[in-house]
Amino acid sequence: MRRSRLMTLVVLLTALALLLAACPAPAAMPATDSDADAADSPASAAGQFKVGLVTDVGRVNDRSFNQSAWEGVVEAGEALGLAEDDIKYIETQDAKDYADNMQQFIDAGYNVIVSVGFALGDATTAAAQENPDVFFIGVDQFQGAAMPNLAGLIFNEDHSGYLAGVLAGSLSKTGTIAAVLGTDLVPPVVAFNEGYIAGAKSVNADINVISTYHPGEISQAFLDPEWGAATAKQALDQGADVIFGAGGITGNGALQEVATADGAGEAVFCIGVDTDQWNTVPAAQPCLVSSAMKLITPGVVELVTMASEGEFPGGNYFGDVDLAPFHDFDDMISQELKDLLEETKAGLFDGSIDTGYGN
Amino acid sequence: MSKNAPVSAFHRLRRRYGNTMIVALALIVMAILVNVTPLKEQTWLRVLFGVSALNFTLRWTVPLVLGALSGILCERSGIINIGIEGMMLAGAFAGFVAKTSTNHWPLAASLIFSVVAAVAVGGLMGAVHALFSIRFRMDQIISGTVIIILALGTTSYLYNRDAIAEGKFSSIPIPGLAQIPVIGPVLFDNPPITYLALIMVAVVHLGLFYTRWGLRTRAVGEHPRAADTVGINVNRYRYINTSLGGMLAGLAGAFLVLEAVGQFQEGMTAGRGFISLAAMIFGNWNPIGALGAATLFGYTQALQNELLLAGVTQVPRQFISMLPYVVTIVAVSGLVGRVRPPAAEGKVYETEGSA
């Protein structure tokens, strides 16, 4: 008798543990609920325009890709006058759930599905092939063969990295700058690095750029802040005085390390990636001069709006890139450098500057 | 019999020269590396033995060796601890919460308080593991897995992204010693948890092999029936050791948050708990051995970074990062030296008549 009570307790605790591991997606629950509604009364869904977003592994408020893309969906939803119930997201808990999560939206009759991240590429392509009536927006997903109902929102990361490189090359006093990167298994990360190197060399041909990629596989390479931090320290030890951290949470670790290093914000600086990391990684503020941004939010807004108008551009759709504001470092950046960055941006845009990536 | 002779000769060779063989192998690999790449010898010296590489190695070693010590304490008393990853993460999170809620305190007080919190929560996770394994006779592998899932789920559920830990431990150079070239900046200019981790290796080693507690712990892990017969309370030793092990894992978590990264991130242990287990096994359940194994893991990690930083692309870096695991497999499979787990590991101990 006593034994069986104990067993019950153990079973309950185990269940609780599993529940806690699975539940940090409270906002995703309504999406599941609405499945049931939609399935019960398909007629009520007709005529409505619904947008669903599937995150990469992680939370929707990750202050990175997921969040930027979701903000785009929300903004587009407001502009199009969609009801709050017609925009939903599902937070992916595990990489093997990508397809299932998209299927949930498909079954519920959603018109547009945004899938966030390079890793979802294959699942998104497969879903788009099976469901020609649904529009898919794949953030950071390069399209090899264009499909009319699938748009890959991609960016010229090399342009963004080039701007960061020009900034880093101009700021460096030691003549050595570094990049601490996620994995080279993800082409955009390589593009950031190649652009960064080319940009730095354009202002100082002799500059020594030392770059490292995380050695792990995709699922780990962006989630290892201590590797980023320790590697940033290693680069600082070798005399680097500007460090570009590009690789999700791994890169954030690098920024945080530089922010606590001797001379942070005076002799050593860091540059963030993807979004304005002044806001997303406040702990990096002591060293963060700028971030090499991909403007995901406006790209998602444009694509969702086009889908609603029935003028969906299949294939690759290029979003804009830019450097984030300098915030507290604004006074430190000379006017010449600001002008140079503006010229560079214009040159990259009209094609007169070539980063050399992909040639 | 004659069939066995060459094998036993190999065994003897292996026992006597096992470590020498590893070192020789490493030197051969290094020599090949130096020859196939265009770098100058000076650059190679920096890549292989530069301060930045050695600093990285030590920094990478600290959480691994603490995790391995945690495993050693548990397993030497007969409890398999696969949940080190979870205990580490829980400790890291506790340290972060404690730090963020005491940001207004003087930095040192706040940091020390946070370390205590991390260690306490780690110990608590250890106690829970012991409770599952001993009281509830749960399969220890499953209990460890539950600990990991529990820690991952709870910490990411409770984690507040707006919270910032202000400040982390900074280096305390040891006067005099820190001035020695290369060795000084690497070994004697570190933040406190790094020193503590190295001290803990010695403490656990001495404790395990030169004290009454250590002897009894090992007896409980090897032959609990015999230990029981001479009046040692088997399960009490297991409770205590597993909780102590949890505390060490919590300290590893404290290292990550309060000394290394300075902030918490979801799942930031990134598999270090599991690599600790490999270090423990490779080190033959011996603290000094575990330190050696963890250092090797750290060094290969540092090396593959150094090669990239130096622009070496002739050698696929995946090979370098693969090395420690290959070495572990070789060690575990008994090719070089032999490792042996405590005999009573993973088995529930029930006093006669209680079942």
Give a written overview of the molecule.
The complex is a heterodimer of chains A (359) and B (355). Chain A is α/β, with parallel strands linked by helices. Chain A has helices at 2-22, 29-40, 42-45, 65-80, 98-107, 121-130, 157-171, 187-203, 218-221, 225-237, 248-259, 277-280, 296-308, 335-350; strands at 51-54, 87-90, 112-116, 135-139, 150-154, 176-181, 208-213, 242-246, 269-274, 288-294, 315-318, 321-323. In chain A, strand 3, helix 6 and strand 4 form a beta-alpha-beta unit. In chain A, helix 7 packs parallel to helix 8 (187-203) and helix 10 crosses helix 11 (248-259). Chain A is globular and about 60 Å long. Residues 23-46 of chain A have low confidence and may be disordered. Chain B is mainly alpha-helical and 355 residues long. Chain B has a domain at 54-160 and 174-301. Chain B is 71% helix and 1% strand. In chain B, strands 1-2 form a two-stranded antiparallel sheet. In chain B, helix 8 crosses helix 9. The radius of gyration of chain B is 22 Å and the shape is globular. Chain B starts with a helix and ends in a 23-residue tail after the last helix. Classes of the chains: A alpha/beta (359), B mainly alpha (355). Chains A and B meet through helix 1, strand 7, helix 10 and helix 11 of A and helix 3, helix 6, helix 13 and helix 14 of B.
Question: What order do the helices and strands come in, and which of them pair?
Answer:
The complex is a heterodimer of chains A (359) and B (355).
Chain A: H1 2-22, H2 29-40, H3 42-45, E1 51-54, H4 65-80, E2 87-90, H5 98-107, E3 112-116, H6 121-130, E4 135-139, E5 150-154, H7 157-171, E6 176-181, H8 187-203, E7 208-213, H9 218-221, H10 225-237, E8 242-246, H11 248-259, E9 269-274, H12 277-280, E10 288-294, H13 296-308, E11 315-318, E12 321-323, H14 335-350
Parallel strand pairs in A: 1-2, 1-3, 3-4, 4-5, 5-11, 6-7, 6-8, 8-9, 9-10
Antiparallel strand pairs in A: 10-12
Helix pairs in contact in A: 4-13, 5-6, 7-8, 7-14, 10-11
Chain B: H1 5-36, H2 41-49, H3 51-76, H4 84-101, H5 107-135, H6 140-158, E1 172-173, H7 183-187, E2 189-190, H8 192-210, H9 212-222, H10 224-229, H11 234-260, H12 272-282, H13 287-309, H14 317-332
Antiparallel strand pairs in B: 1-2
